[in-house]
Amino acid sequence: MPIAPIVGKLRKRFIFDLSLSLGLGTAAAYGYHLKAIERQEQFYLKLEREKLSQK
To answer: Is the pTM of this model over 0.70?
Structure first.
């Protein structure tokens, strides 16, 4: 019966590692996405200002 507690610990550790990696990965991807959108918005704002200044 000494194997049962070890298996339970491994299962809990696996679930913890999996949920932590998914959570951190999602947070990092969300942060990257926000920065990419900000760069895109700045580019189009600059483009629009250039277009308006030429008129």
So the answer is: no
- H/E segment holding residue 27: helix 3-54
Nearest 5°: the CA angle 44, 50, 55 is 130
3-state class of 23 per DSSP? helix
What one-character DSSP code corresponds to residue 19? H
Euclidean distance between CA atoms 37 and 43, whole angstroms: 10
Show pLDDT as tens, one digit a residue, over the chain (55 residues): 556 666 678 888 899 999 999 999 999 999 999 999 999 999 999 999 999 998 7
